[in-house]
Amino acid sequence: MTSVTHEILDAKLETIETRMDGRLHSIEEKLDTKFAQFESNIHKGTAETIKWVVGTAIAMGAIGITIMTFVLNNAIPKAPAAQPAPIVIQVPSAPPTPVHQK
């Protein structure tokens, strides 16, 4: 067996430390990228949800107003419209024809 000197051990440990630092750095970059993507997806989903909720609320409001208008216009029977008095035209009768006596 060969004995390991202090300098060799330090050199190997420094090499391992350098490699581990590189790996940790790449892992941190990957995590940062993934979290940024995740946050972007959350914001996109929130925006989509808000659009759908607002659109649904507007549609429900329009449908509600339409139904209320229809019900209020057709629920109460309408009074028959007063018919105007009929126009009566009287034609004078023809004057009696004189009778000639001879």
Radius of gyration: 50 Å
The percentage helix is: 55-70%
Separation, N- and C-terminal Cα atoms: 179 Å
Instruction: Please report the total strand number as a whole number.
Output: 0
- The percentage of residues in β strands lies in under 5%
Assembly state here? single chain
**Structural class, from secondary structure content?**
mainly alpha
Which stretches are poorly predicted, pLDDT < 50 over at least 5 residues? none
Question: What is the ordering of alpha helices and beta strands?
Answer: H
| Average pLDDT over all residues | 90
State the shape. rod-shaped
The number of helical elements comes to 1
What about the largest sheet? none
Structure, described:
The chain is mainly α and 102 residues long. 69% of the residues lie in helices and 0% in strands. The chain is built from one helix and no strands. The protein has one helix spanning 6-75. The model has no long low-confidence stretch (mean pLDDT 90).
Q: What is the compact description of this entry?
A:
The chain has 102 residues and is mainly α. Helices cover 69% and strands 0% of the residues.
